[in-house]
LptF/LptG family permease
Amino acid sequence: MKSNLEMNGSNIVEQEKTLQKYKIEWHDKITLALACLVLFMIGAPLGSIIRKGGLGMPMIFAIIFFMVFYFVRTRGQKLAREMEMSAFTGMWLAIFVLTPISIFLIYKAMHDSNLFNKEFYTRLKRKLLKRLGKE
């Protein structure tokens, strides 16, 4: 009876692992499609915000954001495979991380932000130093 229970328990664990793999693959297909949209929503505002530098500077930022996406996605996938995280949470982790960044960049692009303008930060630094020096 004891060996029968152990065998049933190991069968259940294997079935749960197989089901987790199927869930991971199902979520993977959806998140990859949405990742294209999210990365586009990051790249388009970057192109309008970063006006100087031609193609180089926006390309560097795009590569950085892609690397962030890739590393977070890979880590979430690994945690989901090891069943430390649900398949939904693990596979959608990169989307959850990058969507607020994309919304922020879209907002900044719509309001003509000086987000990546070096002169803006030097002027801001001078103003802060003047205020700190006067107080």
Remarks:
- Residues 2-49 form the longest helix (48 residues).
- Residues 2-134 form one domain.
- The helical segments are 2-49, 56-81, 87-110, 118-134.
- The two ends are 81 Å apart (CA to CA).
